[in-house]
Amino acid sequence: MDSTSTRRRNTRQKLYEAAVTLIAEKGFSSTSVEEIAERAGVAKGTVYYNFKSKSELFEELLRYGVGLLTASLQEAADETAARGGGKVESLDAMIRAGLLFIHRYPAFTQLYVAELWRTNRAWQSTLLVVRQQAVAVVERVLTEGVANGELSEEIDIPLTAAALVGMVLVAALDWQAFQSERSLDDVHAALSRLLHGRVGGGRS
Amino acid sequence: MDSTSTRRRNTRQKLYEAAVTLIAEKGFSSTSVEEIAERAGVAKGTVYYNFKSKSELFEELLRYGVGLLTASLQEAADETAARGGGKVESLDAMIRAGLLFIHRYPAFTQLYVAELWRTNRAWQSTLLVVRQQAVAVVERVLTEGVANGELSEEIDIPLTAAALVGMVLVAALDWQAFQSERSLDDVHAALSRLLHGRVGGGRS
DNA sequence: ACTTTTGGACTGACCGGTCAGTTCAAATAT
DNA sequence: ATATTTGAACTGACCGGTCAGTCCAAAAGT
């Protein structure tokens, strides 16, 4: 009944884990299939038994990872709403959820950012879908906030959503790479202040 | 006896331009030296006459590009200051300068973002220096703004600077890749609104 | 109970091909 | 004259993908 045996699922999981860190470190094309297999404790042929090609392994990895991210963002938004919080509060909670995700899966985030804007690559279309999934969660909250009256009607939803996602992404990676002594709360506080407009102040 | 003749400088320039687009498209390791030479209209041997290695060509490219960026940001800040504008105004001008830069040199930005957070690479130290150069310009303006009283003393300068840079970077790349029909003014307006706190509505 | 068969999962040597880097003699520019 | 470029040949390493064969647990046959 189970088309994928537990044994096979286990092997796949090990390959994902090996691939994600290696590709984050060295990039897709300078990571060899043999290396991935070796780190997963498996023979090279096994990779090709489980995946059609190196790219396919990578694409499935992307789908899997972004699935985790959007679920986590959505959950943060829902949980805030259930508590009767406003949309700005939801955005704030999503920022924190994003930071937590990146903290937990730093390699995946690195790899996502590094590959997202490349053109002409085989997995371009996969990335497009996957990006849209992530941004859509933020866009939805912004839309609701505008309908709500809580957010100004002037805001440009797609652009603002992209900017917010970018802010979190880059701030988190930077935190990780260059300011790792700071706490998650520090980073969250700094981003939250930006979101609430306590940096550029409200006038003019 | 110019240590670098104009002829040589010209060849270098052509190689930079060829390398930047190719590497942005396909990544460092799947771009071959022969390809770069061919696109530059130059023989492969010439590459090795002008640069020690492929990596060295890439590192010099990074230094060259970030030099252009920081100069452009600094100029925007200075020009605002000369007009008697405040620090928030300077930040706004820098956002625009950043967007313009990315619009003019999209390939360089792609490549920078894709390589910045990789670990264990040969040019890691070059990237660190180069990133610090770019972020420092923003940090300086923030510091002045705090000293000024124009910005709250509560803001966390390194984290806020990183977040602002990230916001611009990702918003611009996203604009380029997924929303290219929007005008530069639209994108600038959206980011400006975030900076001025007109999204999360400010008082508290 | 016990042998035999089956087929999914895995292995690793191997193949065709690519690429960075080196070398160099001849050509061309300054 | 000297600096720079050319273009082609060559090397040695590496890499993605293939494939004939091994392993083994469970089903089928006796």
UniProtKB/TrEMBL annotation, chains A, B:
InterPro entries: Homeodomain-like_sf, HTH-type_TetR-like_transc_reg, HTH_TetR, KstR2_TetR_C, Tet_transcr_reg_TetR-rel_C_sf. Keywords: DNA-binding, Transcription, Transcription regulation. Residues 9-69 form the HTH tetR-type domain. Residues 32-51 bind DNA. This is TetR/AcrR family transcriptional regulator.
